[in-house]
Each structure stands twice: as structure tokens, then as C-alpha cells.
Amino acid sequence: PAQVLQVQGDRPRIKRILQNLLSNALKYSTSPAPVTIKVRDLGAEAQLSVIDRGVGIAAEDLPRVFDRFYRTRRTETISGVGLGLYVTRLLIEAHGGRIWLESTLGTGTAAHFTLPIAPRTPPDAP
């Protein structure tokens, strides 16, 4: 965005959200595949996207990836217990946001989420 976006939220929880999504992107990507972070101003919300070029998620698994302890068969050999996206969803929803994934097997995954933008201060305000 042309200007800095400030979101409303608890700093440690937002940090945890970003750590979880970046950790997943790095864990399921092959090195040196890039991980991209994008930010969009949607008016009342900021949309953040973490995009990887990793193994991807099958379409039939996408509806369940935010379930507690859910892991796809393709990721059973990678360490984890299936709580990262579950906790991330809870934290985002507690902040009044939403999260969703777009993914293609063998191409990668984009994790998108929104958070409310903090009230903007006019430029001439003290």
C-alpha cells in the first residue's frame, strides 16, 4: 500500500499468526523457493498474504486444513501435529478477521487473512 497500515490487535498474537504462516510456508517449500508476503488495503481491513511455491494442498483437503489435529496424507512425513493453522484461525477470528487458503498441488499455497485496520488519524491531527 502507498501508506503504512496499522491493524488493531494484540501484538504477541499477531506475531504468532505471522510466525505460524511463515513457518508453514518454509516447511512445505523446497529450498531455495521464495516465500512472498503481500499486503493490501481493503478499506476497513488489511489483507496479508503469505505465498509459497511448495508442495501445495489437494482441493479435497482444503476444507479441513483449519481443523484441530488435521494433517494431509502428503505431509505425514513432515514434523507437526496439525495445530498451527487451527490456532492461527482462532487468533485471526478473535481479532475480527478471517483466513482462507488457495492452493494447487505441486505449485504452492497462498494463505490470506484479514485484520481490521486501526482508526486512521488525519494528517493534520496532533
Short description:
By secondary structure, the protein is of the alpha+beta class.
Keywords:
single chain, 126 residues, alpha+beta, four-stranded antiparallel sheet, 4 strands
Secondary structure blueprint with pairings:
Layout: H1 11-27, E1 36-41, E2 45-51, H2 84-94, E3 99-104, E4 108-116
Antiparallel strand pairs: 1-2, 2-4, 3-4
Overall 3D shape: elongated
Query: What would you report as the Rg, rounded to the nearest angstrom?
Result: 16 Å
The main sheet orders its strands as 1-2-4-3
What gap, in angstroms, lies between the N and C termini?
24 Å
Characterization of the model:
With 126 residues, this protein is an alpha+beta fold. 22% of the residues lie in helices and 22% in strands. It is built from 2 helices and 4 strands. A hairpin with a 3-residue loop joins strand 1 and strand 2. Helix 1 runs antiparallel to helix 2. The longest helix has 17 residues.
